[in-house]
Amino acid sequence: MPCPPTPPVVTPPVADLFQPIQSLSEVLSDAAVDGAAAGFVAAQLQPGAPVLWIQDRLSQKETGAPYLAGFPMGLKMIRVDVSRAVDVLWSMEEGLRCAGLSAVVGEIWGDPPALDFTASKRLALRAEAQKCPVWLIRRAGTSNLSAARNRWRVKSLPSAPTSHDISAAGHPQWHVELFRSRSHKPGDWVVQYDAAAQKIIPIVQQDKVDAPLLRAI
Amino acid sequence: MMQGDLVAGIRPLLGRRVVSMWFPHLSIERWQRSMERQHIEPPPDVAVTLAVDGAHGPVVHAANPAAIEAGVHTGARIVDMRSLIPELRVEYADVGGDQILLQQLMLWTRRWCPWTSLDGSDGLILDTTGSDHLHDGEALMLADMQARFAQLGLTVRLAVAPTRGAAWGLARYGPERAICPAEDIELRLGALPVKALRLSDKTDLLLNRLGLKTIGALTDVPRVALVRRFARTELIHNPVMRLDQMMGRLAEPVNSPEDPPRFMVRARLPEPVQDPTPHLPALCEALCAELSSAGFGARRIVVSVYKTDGDISHVEAATATGSRDPAHLLGLFRDRIEAINPGYGFDLITLTAAHVEEMADVQSRLGGGTDEGTELAQLVDRLTAKFGAAHVTRPIPGNSHIPERREAWIPAMSGPPAPLETALLRPLRLFHTPEEIRVLYAVPEGPPAQFQWRRQLLRVVRFNGPERISPEWWKDRPTSRLRDYYRIEEQFGRRIWLFREGLHGDGRGREDPRWFVHGVFA
């Protein structure tokens, strides 16, 4: 029996990279009080249908609750505050049974046993069936086994300078690392977030990221 | 029957059927039952009384058969009764507990008819108009009631009559399980003593002194004379009014304390069971069919189980919009039906739509299916049913500039989520309570150059601000201080929202200004 031909690997352009995929993406953040992970997700939410945002208790205590005034304009949100990671996963799955949502975001603290490969696989499959982007924000956790289609690690960088005030902070900049992906080649980027246009603009690409620069940061 | 219609035609108030229940030994039987449950009941020949505090020491509230036989009577002083029976056992009566039991029984008796109410401290009133045929006629219904109360260990005396007054009198002074048709009302009640008119002891004594010992004797007296004689008597003890109410010349409807649910389906079970789950799908189907035919959707549904030990237990669920989708309503009880307390089992399950709203049939898509708004509402219902209304929230704009009041998160059940308008730069995350920081290196203007937050030493590299937000003097305490907000960036690049509370020498609070972290930017 002849072996079927291997499909050619097609790498989409980098511009597509910062568009939400209709599956499970995981965003890891090393520092607890870093707004970069939530900001990276918020930058890719679409106005229109509401977003379901689910937090476990520790995530809310340690990093605060979502404040809609800081999100992109016109976003609608339903917030669910639960105490356990199991309930976060249950709520996310429940949200994926509903066609009236534009995205589902869950925040989980640490490495709970409930968040295993099976749980992430279920989320990914349901998200693909419903064609709805799902984000899992994880803090204080390790990058253990997961079925997420894109896995990111996001960190804050000093913001871009502003022309009119040297002591003021400008557009936020992040160091994003795509360390596991189905559709793209993994890599590092320094990106700038333009909140007014709600756009993530890559500044420095993978091969050009300066090791001394990152070390200095 | 012809004659009955005729009487009802002349006096329309005689058209109803009212059951009066009287529990002559409620307190002592409840006490006895609780003792039996703990297996510490006294032998039947021990005289027991329940006492309440009277003006001159404890008085008898209730007594068991042995005590009654020995001469104990209600209202007598305990010391007198002790002299009668030295070995009398005296317990304190739980009058409040008796009332709670009676309240429960009032709800429990809704298994026979929808309108029931309390009647004094030892009785119930049921308006069974039109519901007796469901129990094979009045005679069998009364027998069923008495048998079920006997299973609970309660003695009950019953009567059914066209008016509340007549039923009250017959239950207490008439024959066992009296059934009084409308045409016989004067004949049947004429022989009862005047006490059956619900009079005060004083009026009763007066009537007896006047030689009017029965209701028949009272009706023979010309009305004008009676009205004149009792013109000054308090209305509720006035024999003329009580007589009119009894004979159906004056309305006295049963004031059922709760609005009767309009949509209720029930499952009668042949024998008591412990788990209602297998019966719920059929009940949901039946309820939704009822709602659908009437054009309503349920906002709140209640599963009630009627236990064999005379108690009821509920599980409640609410929906964000009216719903009559059986699968959805069933899903709301999915993990919660275990919360129901089955006791020793139950033989009747009801599913009630306690709150309904009008709901028209809408087709949103030509190809069928439901629209997104409905799906979202159903999602909110499922989440709320599991986590509680306080944990599934949506934001509404607050009329304030204080950040935490600017955005109020209210239960998502209350409506669809809406976007907020804001023109200011605000953080992505807000801490529930601002976290105080330790300033290590303060500068006269602007935020501190170095501070400690969560045991981390942070150095301010860049900052924007200040943005001053004044306290709301019309709402806050006079000691509340203004806030100067700064958006700072520390040495690792994280952007944090700090504020200074108060100014040096602003006269509010004795301390120097304090610094807090309130939020985190992207």
Describe the fold and architecture.
The complex is a heterodimer of chains A (217) and B (522). By secondary structure, chain A is of the alpha/beta class. Chain A has one domain: 3-Layer(aba) Sandwich (Rossmann fold). Chain A has 5 helices and 10 strands, in the order E-H-E-H-E-E-H-E-H-E-E-E-E-E-H. A 9-stranded mixed sheet of chain A has the order 4-2-5-6-1-7-8-9-10, with helices on both faces. The longest helix of chain A is centred in the middle third of the chain and has 14 residues. Chain B folds into 4 domains: 172 residues, 2-Layer Sandwich (Alpha-Beta Plaits); 40 residues, no CATH class; 122 residues, DNA polymerase, Y-family, little finger domain (Dna Ligase, domain 1), CATH 3.30.1490; 92 residues, no CATH class. The model of chain B has no long low-confidence stretch (mean pLDDT 88). Strand 4 of chain A pairs antiparallel with strand 13 of chain B, so a sheet runs across the interface.
Terminal Cα separation of chain A, in Å?
Answer: 56 Å
CATH class of chain A: Alpha Beta
Count of individual domains of chain B? 4
Mean pLDDT of chain B: 88
Approximately how much helix is present in the residues of chain B?
A: 25-40%
User: Which runs of chain A of at least 5 residues are low in confidence (pLDDT < 50)?
Assistant: 208-217
What's the CATH architecture name of the largest domain in chain B? 2-Layer Sandwich
Taking all Cα atoms into account, the compactness measure Rg of chain A is 18 Å
Which stretches of chain B of 5+ consecutive residues score pLDDT under 50? none
Which bin fits the share of residues in helices of chain A? Answer: 10-25%
Number of strands of chain B: 21
Question: In which order are the strands of the major sheet of chain A placed?
Answer: 4-2-5-6-1-7-8-9-10
Q: Could you state the CATH homologous superfamily of chain A?
A: P-loop containing nucleotide triphosphate hydrolases
Order of helices and strands of chain A: EHEHEEHEHEEEEEH
Overall mean pLDDT of chain A stands at 86
Q: Determine the structural class of chain B based on helices, strands and strand pairing.
A: alpha+beta
CATH superfamily of the largest domain in chain B: Reverse transcriptase/Diguanylate cyclase domain
